[in-house]
Design brief:
This is Ferredoxin. It comes from Enterobacter lignolyticus (strain SCF1). By secondary structure, the protein is of the alpha+beta class. It has one domain. The chain is built from three helices and five strands, in the order βββββααα. A three-stranded antiparallel β-sheet has the order 1-3-2, with no helix packed on it. The protein has a two-stranded antiparallel sheet with strand order 4-5. The protein starts with 19 loop residues before the first strand and ends with a helix.
């Protein structure tokens, strides 16, 4: 079993769910989410661009789902993204995570899987995986 964080090779949630949040989380209202990457839903709600359509894919998602992915606004992502737990994290199964993974034919994650959940550890492992063979 790889010790890389599965989120770094998944991205299914970013291409499955609408990401809606309170309008003031955007940077044009004092928050940190780049407003240019959002669209209005109501007077009080916004969503990440690309997540309020039939073929969902967040505009901040980079890479290929199930391959290597990253979020271009990770440090400034909205609250639903900050609160969404990867299945298996802290020993808890997240059925929503596994539903999104199933949509892209990715296997479910279980609470007893071993992997690093730290972003730095995942980046290091991903970099090592991408280095050319010598």
């Amino acid at each position: 079993m790889s010790d890389i964080n599965p989120c770094m090779t998944c991205g299914a949630c970013c291409a499955y769910f609408r990401v809606s949040f309170y309008w003031a989380e955007a940077d044009d209202a004092g928050g940190s989410v780049p407003a240019a990457l959002t669209e209005p839903l109501s007077p009080f709600l916004r969503c990440m661009g690309g997540t309020n359509q039939k073929q969902v894919r967040c505009v901040a998602l980079q890479g290929d789902i199930g391959g290597a992915v990253s979020c271009s606004v990770y440090e400034n992502r909205p609250s639903p993204c900050r609160e969404f737990a990867m299945s298996g994290e802290d020993g808890q199964v997240n059925d929503a995570c596994n539903r999104a993974r199933a949509r892209y034919d990715l296997p479910p994650l279980y609470k007893d899987m071993l992997f690093h959940t730290g972003q730095d550890a995942a980046r290091t492992a991903l970099t090592e995986l991408q280095l050319p063979a010598s």
